[in-house]
Amino acid sequence: MGTSHRHIPGVTGEPNWGKTSQDVTRISKAVEEEGKLVSNPENKPQKEVEKRQNILGKRITRNYRHAVRDLVRAGGGHSVVSSGKSHAIGNAGVNWATSWTNAFQEIVEQGLSTWLESKGQKLEGKSCQEIIGIIEKFIGYYFVGLDDTAAKEALSHVLGLIEKKIEDKPENFDKVFNEVLHNDEIKDMLDQFFGIYIYSHLSQNFYEKIEKSKGTDIANETMQEIKDLILDDVSRGVDGRPAGQVNWKGIEGRLFIQKEFDRIIKIITDDEN
Q: Which of 48, 53, 157, 195 could form a disulfide with 230 if both were Cys (CB 3.0 to 4.6 A apart)?
């Protein structure tokens, strides 16, 4: 599941993650009970099992929203986080999103081969996976902490989406990047980027705690449940602004990214008013 870095609430210079930790713990307890219901060792009536599963599902969703809300509050609030001003959560997300959207635009303008040559690389003879790895290397920042690690995981997710669209055919790169940039696909990728970015913060901070108290299986199931809920929320948040004509290389692109991040936070925390 990756490395977990636990923060101690109240330590000077660190946000207080205590409430978020409690929210995630409640999710893990509900996930654990769900697992027991599936095996149904007490042979409870099916209607009773389904009723309890419904209650637990709502509890998981409620506490997942609380977890993200409390995570963002600990980082300084959604406007501080989404603007990239918080180095606890938000800064790396906005910076990395600005970097990869900028790179995507450069690739469309120059063509992938020319873009790679400007970086001292050659397109010929390389597999799609190798090319994706090179692109990731030149987009990413040197990462040293939780925030950059979360952004790196989110970038890998986005490039994984690109790789699927390429269909293992290097000649498709230019076509795919052009389609992504000039359709609203880039907004959808931005939304998934920020979804995975938020998920990674929760996973890094609290996976180890759940693993120690509930075991590896429950920890994995808890984090997968959170990830699925985030991506489901993000995929249903379809009312964002058109992105096909945004200039990602200037202030327009960064402002779009900040506003889209803010919108995603509000969707996930169920605070869209």
A: 195
